[in-house]
Structure formats: C-alpha cells, structure tokens
C-alpha cells in the first residue's frame, strides 16, 4: 500500500500524543511508528518538524517501503489514514457521482421501457411477444443494478479505502459480487430481446439460423460467467473477504475474468448490430427512409463504445490498492451501459408510438392522410388498395406508397394480423421476397 507524502508526527512525545487525541487523528499502528522512527534517524527532519516530514518525498518513500514490508494490509490502511489526516490531505469523495449516475440512467431506461409498453397498447398490430417478455426481465434486472448503487455508496464506494472501515470494505466487495452477476445477466437479456425482435422482422432461413445462434451464444455467455463469478474464489466468501490477506482463499484473477467478459460482450454487441444490416441495405425504399431504419438499428454502436470505455477502466480493477475509489469508474460505466442498451432495444417501438403524434417526422402521408410508417392501419387495410398502386403477380402484390419505397408482401389477411407495426412491416415485407 503506497503512502502519500504525508507521514508525520512521531507519537513518542507525549505532547504529540495529546494533540492527536484532541484532533481525533487515528492512532498509527506500532509497525508504522517503527518505520517512521527508523526513517527519521537518517533524515534531516526533526521529530517535531511536521512540515519537513510531510514535504520530504525521499523520507516518505522510505517509510512507505518499510510499511509495505512489515505491516499487514489493515495496518497499512491505518497508517495511511493517520498520515493523511495529520498532514491535512483531504481524500476524494465521489459517492454522489456513483448513485446519481445509476439512478438517472436507470430512470431513463425505465422510461424507454414504459414507452415501449405504450406502443404495444396503442399502436395497432403491435403485439406483446417473446422479445417484450425478455425485455421485461432485463428491465427488472436493470432496476436492481441501479438500486444497488445506493448501499454501495453508503458503505463507502467513492471514498478512499483508508477512510472506510474494514467492515464497510467487505460490504462493498460483497455487494460487488452480486452486482457483477446482475450486470452480465442484464447485458445478455437485452441482446436476446433484440434478437427475438429480429426474428419477428426478418424471415430468411439463414438469418434466423444466425439469430438463434447468437441467442444461444448470449445465453452461454451469461450462464458461463455467472458460474465463474460465483466460484471465482474457493471458498466462495473469499470473493469479498480475502482483500486483507487474512482470509485463506484461492481466487481466479479478477482482471482475467473482467477483461475476458468485456471482450466477449463487445464481440457479441457487434454481431447483433451487424446481423440485420445486409437485409436492411437490400430494402427497396427511399434513401432517407432506409437511413432512418439503419441508423435506428446501428444506434447500438453507442452501447459498444461505452463497453470499450468500461474495458479501459478495468485496467486498474484487479491491481488496485484503493478498492473503494478505483471501483467507481467501472461501477458507473456499468450503470450507464445497461440502461443505454435497453433504450436502444426499445427504439423501434418508441418510433412507432411517436409516428402517431409526429407523422411528418416518423410517418408517411398520402393525400392528407397520415398513418405510421409501415403500419397496417393505412389505406391497404381499409380496402383502399387502389390508392397505393397495387398490382397482382402470382398471388403476391407489389405495393407502392408515394413512390417512396416498394415492398413485396403476401396479401393474406392472417399474415397482416400477426405482424408488428412500423419497422416490422417495412423490413419483413421487403425481406420476404428475398428470403432463402
């Protein structure tokens, strides 16, 4: 444990001891006092010259090395706290940052899910499916991830480790033990929900095979890393108790677990984003509409960017000497990444809802009549197919709306009644004619 250039005051003199009590300064451990006394013997600083002791970098480096050799981790923390208080060095406090970020982004993710639910209720042909059930579970897990930030900060996450009691350090690590599994579960559930939505939209056999394969990979990813995280230490309580070296446990390097999980998650993110791009690029529609749809599907790149930033923050995760401070960055990037992923997964449904109220931006207008882009509530379903320019060809019809795009779709009523609105009809209809 490194000691800041603040080691001061040799408590051998009664006057200094009395001052320490009056100022409520933590009493340093015996091993720390011995290291300080030995270092002062070869220093130009006197015992009572606190300013000299605090400012002498060489002296503090010497004392630090001695403390690391002869003191336990708990004693090192005690010495660190004593030195910082004695030298008047204020520690960093980022507790508010942790819980505010978690709650704000958690509420944003919840708001996106509520809008998704409203779209299912009020947009005709939007039906509740497996993708919505998966998203419902993901949102419940996200709420748990956001809420857990509050007890984390109450136990000292965001403070310097030497300013946190030993029991609170253990409590923080115990909460992180569960936090990691919640995080992995929510990431996988969000991607599974997106892939289930793809299956409702894209009809190609090859596409469905790839989607099911990615669903399986995400499921294996979640189950595997949950298992690894549970048994990262033998015995299991070592995950939160072996930090001080006093609890005997054999643990897998948390760096290896964290980096591997993050790298695989990024690869799965990219696979989910890239999967729908080829059929989307083949859509027969105006460039403007095509770009709108593609951008909506690729907005998940922002989530991948957050994952990359979080991966960078893991560099110090496993080698930290200041757990309650160095875990902050990993924590708040996790609580950003998960809700943003949920927001991205809810965007198609949100867009269909907004198209009802902002048809000029999100819908299609024909001769003063507005209906959601790709919705089945338009002129076709009302029997006004002549306004769309419908031509029959072997039981299939080619539909043109305002000449903005052309879709090829079956005219079967049962097919229409089962499809979702907005993106589903635009994409599924165009892709069905090109299915394998």
Can you give keywords for this protein?
436 residues; mainly alpha; Rhopdopsin 7-helix transmembrane proteins; 3 domains; three-stranded antiparallel sheet; two-stranded antiparallel sheet; 19 helices; disordered C terminus; CFEM domain-containing protein
Write the layout of secondary structure elements.
Elements: H1 14-22, H2 30-41, H3 50-55, H4 57-70, H5 73-86, H6 95-122, H7 130-147, H8 149-154, H9 166-201, H10 205-230, E1 233-234, H11 238-241, E2 250-251, H12 254-274, H13 277-281, H14 287-298, H15 301-313, H16 323-357, H17 359-362, E3 363-366, E4 369-372, E5 391-393, E6 396-401, E7 405-410, H18 413-418, H19 423-432
Antiparallel strand pairs: 1-2, 3-4, 5-6, 6-7
Keywords: Disulfide bond, Glycoprotein, GPI-anchor, Heme, Iron, Lipoprotein, Membrane, Metal-binding, Secreted, Signal, Transmembrane, Transmembrane helix
Family: Belongs to the SAT4 family. Belongs to the RBT5 family.
Binding site for heme: 49
Spatially, the strands of the biggest sheet line up as 5-6-7
Radius of gyration from the alpha-carbon trace, in angstroms: 30 Å
Work out the oligomeric state of the chains in this entry: single chain
Estimated share of beta-strand residues: 5-15%
Q: What count of helical segments does DSSP give?
A: 19
Q: Which structural category fits the helices and strands? A: mainly alpha
CATH fold call of the largest domain? Rhopdopsin 7-helix transmembrane proteins
Low-confidence stretches: 1-25, 364-423, 425-436
The counted number of beta strands is 7
DSSP helix fraction: 55-70%
